[in-house]
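Reviewers of the previous submission asked for a worked example of the structure-prediction workflow described in the proposal, so we include one complete record here. The input consisted solely of the amino acid sequence. No template or homolog information was supplied to the procedure at any stage.
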Amino acid sequence: MIRAGNYTYLRRTLRRDPCRAEAFSESDIEDYVQAISRPGALTAGINYYRALLRGGPWGLRQVLRRIDAPVLVIWGEHDPYLGVELAAPDPTWVPHARVEYLPDAGHWVQNDRPEQVNALLLDFLNSPLPRVSG
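From that input alone, the workflow returned the following structure tokens.
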């Protein structure tokens, strides 16, 4: 489906779904199409999701490990693919997570709101590390 019509679905998605109309230039879209059309690139991306789902929820639980490092999640509230309920990690597994919701961003949050994302990343990276018991 993704390859059909010279990647029509991908092109349409990158034009239609960002919250900011100029999030992707035509040149950006062509770069994405060129990258995903390289031999093995699309299969590798799809295999990432296949591996994540292998064995159902129990298979995933067997490979999950607690993350005791600080984690920043930046989430667009208008993501047409992933709901906001998926943004906040379970504190059992990720106890030091900070979630920032951007009300004016979608799935491609870094393209919709690059200045906000950069500011959040810089703030996170320059913050002192929390004390982690372990």
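The two ends are 46 Å apart (CA to CA). We consider this example representative of the routine output the project will generate in years two and three.
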